[in-house]
# Entry
Amino acid sequence: MVVTNPSFGTADLTNCDREPIEIPGSIQPHGILVVLHPESLVILQAAGPTDVLLGLTAEDLLGVEFGALVSADAIQVIRDILTHASHGPRSENLFSFEVTAVGQRFDAAVHAGEAGMIVEMEPVKSASPLPGGPLGLVQTMLASVQDAGGLKDFCQRAAEEVQRATGFARVMVYRFNEDDSGHVFAEARKGEIGTYLDLHFPASDIPAQARDLSSRNWLRLIVDARYQPAPLAPPLSPLTGAPVNLSHCALRSVSPLHLEYLANMGVRASMSVSIMRGGKLWGLFACHHDQPRHLAPGLRAACELFAQMFSFQLEARIKADTLEEAMRMRDIHDRLVAVISGEPDIVHGLVQHQPNLQDYLPSSGVALWLDGRYSSIGTTPDEGKIKKLAEWLTTSNAPGVWATDRLPLVWEDGYDMAEQACGVLVLSVSRSPRDYIFWFRPEVLRTVTWAGNPNKPVETKPGELRLSPRRSFDAWVEQVRFRAVPWSEAEITAAQTLRTTLLEVVLQRVDQVARERELSRQRQELLLAELDHRVKNTLANIQALVQYASASGGSGGDAVTGAASEMLNGFTASFGHRLRAMAHAHSLLTQSRWEGADLRSLLEEEARAHTAGVEGATIRTRLTGPEVMLRPKAALALSMAIHELVTNAAKYGALSVPDGMVDISWALNESGKNGEGATFTLDWIERGGPPVSPPTRRGFGRIVIEKSLAYEVDGESRLVFAADGVRCHVRIPVEHVVDWERTPQVSMTAASPRMEAEPVLPSRILLVEDSGLVAMQIQNLLEEAGCEVVGPASRVGPALRLARSEVIDAAVLDVDLNGTPSWDVADALASRGIPFMLATGYSSDDALPDRFRSVPKLLKPFSTEGFEVALRNLLKTP
# Structure
């Protein structure tokens, strides 16, 4: 079906919402309108009583240069206004000039459009300007409403001020409802004119396109509703071939239907001034008079400015009222969250404590449908009806917060619960299956008084087929059913806030662990990765500190003997190895979210770290045992013991010679020693190494092996210094084992071939590191390798400037600079094609952006050898 729009003036009440009121083709005859060519200012079109006011008919004006009628100063003003033309308040484009040929002064306004420059001219009828000017009038009006109490009083005073300033017999504050119907919220009158206070008007009284035009134009005046329209000559624009858009013209002719509507109300003159809130039309100052009434442009500009200032204050007052209510609900929200956060049963916490959900949002009752359980407080529908409502909401894909004050009118089954639940506000706290919290409000029988019968807004005149506006505006009373007290914006916002809180704070208890496991896992891994990163940074700082202390202690000349210096260097190296062993165990635990560490991975890494550099070595260690996960405390203690065993074997035992071998086996024994419970045992056996002699003193490594397990996990370790090789037996209570496989597995660890050091080509290396100790350590290593260090920089800003401006061959970039990720610096380096490696304590790439996961990493804490290898590989990067 093709819908056609009526032309202006031919619409009736069946299609008036499509009437093109912005192109009426005519104006009200209390002024003149001319359309000028935008360059030559020749008159292209004209309308109004030009013969009376200018001495020339509209047709005679066509082709005349406007400059022939007015002074050069007026023409310059027009051009100046058009240079900064906007569709803001008309007062911005107002000016006045005199047509000397007729001795008449005009108030004028200028607008730019596709059809040309539109000039509206109204004759100045008196020389009595406003006392204090428009601004003074507005200041007086604002002062009168400033100290008003509530919203009602504020609007009432504003209506009185507009009535006093304009002289209209009746001034109403006409407020739009959500359904676009209107309500006379406040009214000021004088004389015998009737009242419409508290009457309601159907939405069809002010059609959609009229509301839209009012939202774009602050003011519209009808001087005499019985006027005869003055048509534009010619009717179509010579520039566009279309009717001229008069949307922003004060003289624009109005719909004949509206004039008929005013006549039926007994109104002869009318003015409407828009009231805006949040960019939308909130209402109007609707002004009526029983006789023709003209307001000078200056006075209209004052009314327009007052309406703007009133709109700002209205917005502020409504926000203040909303804020007060929001603060009350926020206080209850915080207390409610404090209760449910410590309550194992969320339902009990939400309804049985004070405050509860019914205190949070004013309602007659609250019902909860959570995880298939029903609970309620106050007056609510029964469980069966709640379940049915929940199913309907789920199938209709209701949003996270849904509210209505007329449930029976949107859901057919709602009629069965209208007495308790005409108003419903619902928030969902899960996705599938849906869990809900319901607030209910009962039906409130409401009496609405309409200005005439809203069900009969049109009438048919005798002998006519055309539908006309109703003639009667007498009060018509309607009983409104199936409505509740509406939910306010503040209440809906409060429900959204509570929903967010429930989802973030306690949703895992509502939605079950299974439905939130993945999100919880990701959050935990991120936190553990951050913890792991910080621990590694701390270890790196300790390592750097020890290395600097060692270097300082070994540079004292004769004060330190060669033996002492060698001993100090040995201590520093051992200390660094121990830190890296701790770091590796920490990484394994982080990968399992600190549930446990894989024993085989722990052993393989330690063995691999100490099997390099022996000529002709093949298989160095053999690992035999089931797959076992050790709890964090046992894993850390055992890793240090294994590190000391591997270090000793690499220095003095089986791993110090090419043919040496270490067998490491472990098992779970159902019964422990002397009838104790099940235990985990590990045996270390060295073969093929140099002959072993029992040590004459108990060193630190031996203390770690023999004492740490006993102290940390109530375990035991026994060292045996057999002539053919060191042996160690470890026993740990089985409660320190997380999981295991019964079937033993065998794996071999081969020696890593010795890498001959390749010379590093002289390079300029950007160093970005927020730890001073680590930065100095890396700088020394770079300088010893023959590189020139650019920086170092410890913050993102300076690092970014260096990365963008300096000549750089490569970069070493810490991933975190004083809590700020260094990704911007990395992006700057990547954009220049400069290779870089990320210095990081993160064990996994999951904490890195996808684009940097393939970038070389320098894992903290690092050894000197590890850094040199990483640097050579970096400088080989194409």
